[in-house]
Write a structure and sequence with these properties.
Blueprint: H1 2-30, E1 39-43, E2 47-50, E3 59-63, E4 68-75, E5 80-85, E6 88-93, E7 97-99
Antiparallel strand pairs: 1-4, 1-7, 2-3, 4-5, 5-6
């Protein structure tokens, strides 16, 4: 009898653990803009890095054509990518970025 109860508790623990894992993993997929979900991309041309997501903002650097980087999030209706550029926040146009490296 004790063996059956211990086995039932083990099965319950495994089911609950699997459910929690799936919930956490699923929430990471649903929130692609979260800090934990950096997405690699390749610059398709020499790409200006700007201080804010607008062509009116100052250029703070350039990503060279073909170089690979990690996007932290999509911003401004998914038209700009937020990146970490030399230790500061930067933005590049999503029009000139191809997903993957």
């Amino acid at each position: 009898m004790q063996f059956a109860q211990a086995k039932a508790r083990s099965v319950r623990f495994l089911v609950v653990s699997a459910a929690v894992f799936l919930l956490v993993a699923g929430s990471m997929m649903i929130l692609p803009g979260s800090a934990n979900a950096a997405v690699p991309f390749r610059a398709t041309t020499d790409l200006n890095v700007r201080a804010c997501p607008s062509t009116n903002c100052a250029v703070i650097g350039v990503l060279r054509r073909g170089s690979c980087h990690a996007a932290q999030a999509w911003v401004k209706d998914r038209t700009w990518l937020r990146i970490n550029f030399r230790g500061r926040r930067g933005f590049v146009s999503g029009r000139y970025a191809r997903r993957g490296c």
